[in-house]
């Protein structure tokens, strides 16, 4: 294995509406797995298509970049004013009571538009169960307050999205819904016992595994009933023993952003990479600072060279990332502007949106 292939375990964010020098270096020299775009990278349909074409132009004979985005709908919509407007997922959860096929149709519609724009992976849906009215970060991003409702709707949404050709990501495992702290700012603690977690928090994620979800994102939360020492992102008990062995998930496990204070204020980058890989994380998100992604890749090289992380664990993670790319990139081709204009906000999509705008 070439050491440079270690970059395949990282997804990074960057500034600007074009591929800047740092992004170009990370994709072409460090061979990072791909990028995540945010509102700071988005101005118009034409610009997004061109940006994603620029990114795909940096593919090598061995690796093509995975282009991802947080496009949930509602208040988390990086492609706002470009794609067909999508409401918060609570609205979809409510409407699905009378329109049971709506989550599937929504997932498929969102996938068609994102694929037309050049994306391969959407970090959606939220499968956290909204059981805490004081939760500052989940709330109406969740489909419902009932675990089985979230499970049913989430599975349909995933099926629609992935059958249309876009990778979905169930988040935030093993469940961020009943916390009262934003993990961007501090470390939330979920104090329920194991039986409650199995009866509520885990139910939607089990359904997503049965639906064949391509990936999951970890939660930067501490759950003493499962692991009293490490937050879920860094916990072998949660990611390996529970998710891999008990729930039998073999897709890609993404970390949430390693720059979030829940983990960044408590661990060095090297510690997060070491603990995360040993726990079962396959790919790490570093969404803002270029210096941090450079630090993360350098740390992984050192950890592998010194044997602090077994090569077998790295190869396992690389296999999962490669399988996801094979499934959802195939023979990668850049987005086509004319095709994007035909699909994004097309008449059938705007007609579907009438379900939640009237």
Order of helices and strands: EHEHEEEHHEHEHHEHEHHEHHHH
How many domains? The number is: 1
Strand order of the largest sheet: 6-3-2-1-10
Mean pLDDT, all residues = 96
Output the structural class: alpha/beta
Question: What name is given to the CATH topology?
Answer: TIM Barrel
Distance between the termini: 55 Å
Give the helix proportion (percent range). 40-55%
CATH class: Alpha Beta
Shape: globular
Question: Which architecture would the CATH scheme give at its second level?
Answer: Alpha-Beta Barrel
Query: Beta-strand percentage?
Result: 5-15%
Round the Cα radius of gyration to an integer and report it.
19 Å
Question: Helix tally?
Answer: 14
Major β-sheet annotation = 5 strands, parallel
Care to count the β-strands?
Answer: 10
Low-confidence stretches: none
CATH H-level superfamily title: Glycoside hydrolase, family 3, N-terminal domain
Oligomer: single chain
Keyword list:
358 residues, alpha/beta, TIM Barrel, 5-stranded parallel sheet, 3-stranded parallel sheet, 14 helices, 9% strand
In words, what does this structure look like?
With 358 residues, this protein is an alpha/beta fold. It has a single domain, classed as TIM Barrel. The protein is 43% helix and 9% strand. It has helices spanning 21-28, 45-56, 89-95, 102-117, 147-163, 194-199, 202-210, 236-246, 261-264, 269-279, 290-305, 311-328, 337-343, 347-357; strands spanning 10-12, 34-37, 66-69, 71-73, 76-77, 121-122, 169-173, 215-218, 252-254, 284-286. The strands form three sheets. A five-stranded parallel sheet has the order 6-3-2-1-10, with helices on one face. The chain has a three-stranded parallel sheet with strand order 7-8-9. The N and C termini lie far apart (55 Å).
């Amino acid at each position: 294995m070439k050491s440079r292939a270690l970059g395949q375990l990282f997804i990074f964010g960057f500034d600007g509406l074009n591929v800047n020098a740092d992004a170009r270096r990370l994709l072409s020299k460090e061979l990072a797995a791909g990028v995540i775009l945010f509102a700071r990278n988005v101005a118009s349909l034409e610009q997004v298509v061109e940006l994603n074409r620029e990114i795909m132009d940096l593919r090598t004979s061995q690796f093509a970049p995975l282009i991802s985005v947080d496009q949930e709908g509602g208040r988390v919509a990086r492609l706002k004013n470009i794609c067909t407007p999508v409401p918060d997922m609570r609205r979809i959860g409510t409407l699905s009571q009378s329109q049971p096929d709506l989550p599937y149709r929504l997932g498929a519609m969102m996938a068609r538009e994102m694929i037309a724009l050049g994306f391969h992976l959407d970090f959606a849906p939220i499968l956290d169960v909204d059981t805490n009215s004081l939760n500052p970060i989940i709330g109406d991003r969740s489909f419902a307050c009932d675990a089985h409702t979230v499970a049913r709707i989430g599975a349909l949404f995933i099926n629609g999205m992935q059958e249309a050709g876009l990778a979905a990501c169930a988040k935030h495992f093993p469940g961020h819904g009943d916390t009262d702290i934003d993990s961007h700012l501090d470390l939330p603690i979920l104090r329920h016992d194991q039986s409650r977690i199995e009866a509520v928090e885990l139910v939607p994620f089990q359904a997503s595994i049965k639906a064949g979800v391509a990936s999951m994102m970890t939660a930067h939360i501490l759950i003493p009933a499962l692991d009293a020492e490490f937050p879920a992102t860094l916990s072998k008990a949660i990611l390996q023993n529970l998710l891999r062995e008990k729930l039998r998930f073999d897709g890609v496990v993404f970390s949430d952003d390693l720059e979030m204070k829940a983990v960044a204020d408590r661990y060095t980058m090297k510690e997060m990479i070491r603990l995360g890989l040993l726990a079962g994380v396959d790919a790490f998100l570093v969404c803002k600072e270029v210096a941090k992604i450079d630090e993360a890749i350098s740390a992984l090289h050192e950890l592998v060279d010194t044997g602090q992380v077994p090569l077998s664990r790295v190869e396992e993670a690389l296999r999962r990332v490669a399988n996801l790319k094979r499934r959802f990139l195939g023979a990668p081709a850049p987005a086509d502007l004319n095709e994007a204009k035909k699909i994004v906000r097309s008449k059938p999509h705007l007609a579907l949106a009438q379900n939640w705008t009237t």
